[in-house]
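As agreed, record copied across for absentees:
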Amino acid sequence: SRTRGTCAGSLVQQQARLSSSNAVKYSHHYILTEVELTVHPVIIFFLSRFVMPDYRRYRIAGGTYFFTVNLLERNPNDLLVKNIDVLRKAVRQTRKNLPFHIDAWVVLPDHLHGVWTLPAGDNDNSNRWRSIKQIFSKAMPKTERRSGVRVARGERGIWQRRFWEHMILDDVDYAAHIDYCHINPVKHGLVKKAADWPYSTFHRYVKAGIYSNGWAAPSSSESTDGERA
């Protein structure tokens, strides 16, 4: 299940791609194979402290969405980064059957954020997340705590049932959410700068020349407090 964003409007068309290597072709575009968030003014202020890159030439056709997906047991829980290869496999397997383009992705210890673009005419985010969660959960030993309801339903106790979804509206919205993903490890105090966190598409953007390696490296006077869990 999902919580839909309340924003409405036409989606911006993405008009280029990072690379066609290891890609599948869909409707004349290459798709790479690798809660509702209304951007709060505080986040906008934080991001405005840095130079915002121009992402427009890296967009492709199709609906683009931002997501937050949480583990059921939050901090302290480092299940996702401890099992990053399992998560990557779950994403790869899902994309073989239900393709989508990863615009941005960051995996934190107990939750993840992502921006992805669906093929034209496709809006099925729920089954994609269901697949990712199920593949990951099946690979985990059954040691997690489960409520009586989950036990009765035969459900695992790893992921929260719902995910947070926001439809991207325009270039400004897109850029803000891409930056939000990449700056998240800094906001949580996990690293001093975005480049120091390994579980992120930030490094792909550096290679493409969109970010500098020192992007989002705050001075000692800037807050790196994490968002509310």
